[in-house]
Amino acid sequence: MTSTPCGGTAEQKSVSAGEAAEEKPASLRRNRDFRFWWGGTMLSAIGDELTAVALPLIVLLITDSPLHAGLVGSVESIPPLLLSLPLGMLVDRVSRRAVMLAASLLSAASIATVAIAFLLDGLSLPQLYVVAFVNSLAATAYRIADTAALPGITGPHKLGEAASQSETIFGTSALIAPPLAGLMFETMSPAAPFLLDALSFVAVAAAILAIRSRLGPEGAPEPLRWRRELTAGMRITAGLALVRALTLLTTVGDFLFAGIGLLLIVLAKGSGASGFEVGAVFTAAGVGSLLGAALAPRIEAGLGLRTAVVGKHWLTALLFPLLLVDLPGWGIGLVWGLVALQVAVLNVIQMKYLMSQVHSDQLGRVQGFMTFLSKSSLPLGYALTGLLLDRWGTRGTIVFFEAVLLCLAVYALLGRGLRASHVTRSEDAGSGAPDDQPLPSRRGSER
């Protein structure tokens, strides 16, 4: 018999997973716990977006300094870069419900202090720096624990649909929260978006408490070995061929498109687009992302994993050179909206197979590693786009982007991780990866 990472035989694990799947409703819409997860995650995402807009606005209001507004934003980038790996380790060692609950209440408390201090005329710049750091720390911990807890809520056979819903949540919040924050800030009070944000996180905490599923991790943790645990996410990812291939594709894509907003603004302005048309370009991207998230499970189910991923990359490589044509603003928005649709499809597929191939007790460390990769690529990618635009202009930058996209398309077509994968359709994915067991996870019983 084959042993699994957490102890017990593969046959026993299969029976346990099957029993767990039978206990879950056939539809996520009927899954009470998933509805609470969905509501809590949506509120959390909207809260993060509200703060992302309102915080620099209030810094500018009290200091009239763009420098300080930028520095406060920089402080928000510190926790994901420095703490995502240890936070992932924490999520795999303690109650994920407790992590999510503590993160929600910490966000609520820190953000409420901004509104209260402003209303009492006591708001200071040092306080805003502290709030930026604390709220970013809480948001990072929440998102890692949130993803790690999701398979326990949905069961192994609904991960594709759950990944689609997750991508939809963040796409929706990115569309509605920024204008809402600006509107409340200008028409009601600068304190208003912070009060709404704080209340949203109280509601998030209530949703977490309402979830009945056991969110893990399972059993008793192994003795703590800091160096091994901090690098575990990287080693687990490297040891799973399919996850490794998808992670490489998404990470390089994140790096490449980190500064795409800057490129599109320069391109649209160069074509004579108005401010409204520039905004419409990003609205089109948001709509494309939502459509991609909704269609991703059907695309993968109909085409199979490899065909869906390969097709996504070749379609993106074919669409992107259209930006070299002298398009009007709406044309740029259409092209980028279609590219954004393809990106969302890959994000959903990557999240689904991350959750299905990685054992539940290892998801925190792997998600911590994914968070580190994603967040570290953003400033570097943005700086690269600015450098390319300065040296080569828009056309040279687009040609460079296209060269990288073609390399990704060739890798998707010929890469061993996708070619050798035994998982070809969404319904074939299980709750673990029996062929790839890079780390033992825990002693203890299944639950």
Structural description of this entry:
The chain is mainly alpha-helical and 447 residues long. The protein is 77% helix and 0% strand. The protein is built from 17 helices and no strands. The chain has helices at residues 10-23, 32-63, 66-76, 78-91, 96-119, 125-154, 159-187, 192-210, 226-230, 232-239, 241-257, 260-270, 275-303, 305-319, 329-357, 363-414, 416-419. Helix 2 packs antiparallel against helix 3 (66-76), helix 12 crosses helix 13 (275-303) and helix 14 (305-319) packs antiparallel against helix 15 (329-357). The longest helix is centred in the last third of the chain and has 52 residues, at 363-414. The model is unreliable at 1-22 and 424-447 (pLDDT under 50).
Multimerization state:
single chain
| Helix and strand composition category | mainly alpha
Helix content: over 70%
Indicate the radius of gyration in whole angstroms.
22 Å
Tell me, rounded to a whole number, the average pLDDT.
Answer: 85
What does the overall shape look like?
globular
Tell me the strand percentage band: under 5%
Largest sheet: none
Report, as a whole number of angstroms, the end-to-end distance.
Answer: 21 Å
Number of strands: 0
N-to-C SSE series?
HHHHHHHHHHHHHHHHH
Spans of at least 5 consecutive residues whose pLDDT stays below 50 are 1-22, 424-447
Work out the helix count.
Answer: 17
What does this entry show, briefly?
The chain has helices spanning 10-23, 32-63, 66-76, 78-91, 96-119, 125-154, 159-187, 192-210, 226-230, 232-239, 241-257, 260-270, 275-303, 305-319, 329-357, 363-414, 416-419. The chain has 447 residues and is an all-alpha fold.
